[in-house]
C-alpha cells in the first residue's frame, strides 16, 4: 500500500523570505497605479475647468466688443487716480513693453446692465433738456472698458469721466472700477472684475484686422515702439480682433496648459 503524504499548512521561513519582496513589489505597483490614475483624473478635471473658465472669459469679452464701436490705442477718457494702469494716473496702452497688452474698448454707458433687454443709452443732459423728445439726439455718456493682465490674472476695468453722475439724464448702471485691495479714494465705486488667473503678461495677445474675413493682422498696431498717434490711426480702420488667451497652472504636480483663440467683431 502506498503511503499518502500531506503538505503542511503555511509557508516556511525560507519561502516567506522569497515571497515577501514579490508581495511588496506588487503592492508598490498597485499604489503607483492608483496615484497615477488619481493624478490623471485631477489633471483632466483641471483642464476641463480651465477650458470652461477661459471660454466664459472670452464670452464676456465678446459681449463687450459687440457693444462697443472702436478699439483704442490708449484710453480716451481722462483718468482719475487710481484708475491708471499703475493704479495712479498713467494711461492704458493697447501694447506696452512695461505692462504688456490691453484691450481698450470705446463704448457708451447704459441705464441698466448691458445684458438687460430693457436697457437704454445714458444720454447726456445737454444740449437738449432731459424732458425733451429730442434728448435722443444728445450724445450718450462715453466710457472705456479695459481688459488687462496683472498679477498673473486677466482683469476688466471700467473707466468713466469724473462728472459722470451729474451730466446724464439717467444714472448710468456702470461704475468706475479700480484694482481690488488698493485705496480707491473717493472716485472708484467698484472693484475690477477678475476673469481668470494663470496668465503671464505674454499670455494675453490681440491682433487687429480690418474686417471679419481679413486674414492678415496689422503688426504696426501691436508694436509698442510705435507712437500712440500712429497706433490710433491704424486702429481707427479696424473692426475685428483675434484674441488669444494662454493659461499655465500647476495641478497634481504637473504643469497644465490651455489655450484658446477667437475672432471678435465690433458692433455698430
Protein topology:
Layout: H1 13-66, E1 70-71, E2 95-96, E3 100-108, E4 142-150, E5 153-159, E6 177-178, E7 190-191, E8 193-197, E9 204-209, H2 228-235, E10 240-251, E11 254-265
Description:
It is a single chain. With 268 residues, the chain is of the alpha+beta class. The chain has one domain. Helix content is 23%, strand content 25%. The chain is built from 2 helices and 11 strands. The protein has helices spanning 13-66, 228-235, and strands spanning 70-71, 95-96, 100-108, 142-150, 153-159, 177-178, 190-191, 193-197, 204-209, 240-251, 254-265. Strands 1, 2, 3, 4, 5 and 8 form a 6-stranded antiparallel sheet that branches.
Summarize the structure.
By secondary structure, this protein is an alpha+beta fold. It has helices spanning 13-66, 228-235, and strands at residues 70-71, 95-96, 100-108, 142-150, 153-159, 177-178, 190-191, 193-197, 204-209, 240-251, 254-265.
H/E series: HEEEEEEEEEHEE
Largest sheet: 6 strands, antiparallel
Percent range for β-strand residues:
25-35%
Count of folded domains: 1
Mean pLDDT: 88
Query: What's the count of strands?
Result: 11
> What global shape is seen?
elongated
Share of residues in helices: 10-25%
Number of continuous helical runs: 2
Distance between the termini: 108 Å
Roughly how many Å is the radius of gyration? 29 Å
Q: Strand pairing plus helix content: what structural class? A: alpha+beta
Uncertain residue ranges: none
Amino acid at each position: 500500500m502506498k503511503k499518502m503524504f500531506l503538505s503542511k499548512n503555511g509557508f516556511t521561513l525560507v519561502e516567506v523570505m522569497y515571497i515577501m519582496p514579490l508581495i511588496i513589489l506588487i503592492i508598490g505597483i498597485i499604489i503607483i497605479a492608483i496615484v497615477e490614475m488619481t493624478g490623471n483624473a485631477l489633471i483632466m478635471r483641471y483642464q476641463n475647468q480651465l477650458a470652461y473658465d477661459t471660454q466664459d472669459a472670452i464670452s464676456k469679452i465678446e459681449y463687450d466688443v459687440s457693444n462697443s464701436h472702436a478699439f483704442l490705442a490708449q484710453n480716451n477718457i481722462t483718468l482719475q487716480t487710481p484708475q491708471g494702469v499703475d493704479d495712479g494716473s498713467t494711461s492704458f496702452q493697447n501694447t506696452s513693453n512695461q505692462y504688456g497688452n490691453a484691450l481698450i474698448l470705446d463704448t457708451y454707458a447704459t441705464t441698466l446692465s448691458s445684458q438687460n433687454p430693457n436697457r437704454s443709452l445714458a444720454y447726456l443732459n445737454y444740449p437738449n433738456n432731459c424732458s425733451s423728445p429730442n434728448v435722443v439726439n444728445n450724445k450718450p455718456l462715453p466710457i472705456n472698458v479695459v481688459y488687462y493682465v496683472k498679477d498673473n490674472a486677466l482683469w476688466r476695468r471700467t473707466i468713466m469721466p469724473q462728472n459722470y453722475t451729474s451730466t446724464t439724464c439717467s444714472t448710468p448702471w456702470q461704475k468706475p472700477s479700480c484694482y481690488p485691495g488698493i485705496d480707491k479714494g473717493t472716485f472708484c465705486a467698484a472693484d475690477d472684475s477678475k476673469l481668470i488667473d494663470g496668465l503671464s503678461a505674454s499670455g494675453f495677445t490681440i491682433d487687429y484686422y480690418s474686417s471679419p474675413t481679413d486674414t492678415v493682422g496689422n503688426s504696426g498696431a501691436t508694436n509698442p515702439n510705435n507712437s500712440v498717434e500712429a497706433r490710433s490711426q491704424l486702429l481707427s480702420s479696424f473692426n475685428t480682433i483675434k484674441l488669444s488667451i494662454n493659461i499655465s497652472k500647476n495641478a497634481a504636480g504637473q504643469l497644465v496648459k490651455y489655450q484658446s483663440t477667437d475672432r471678435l467683431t465690433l458692433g455698430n
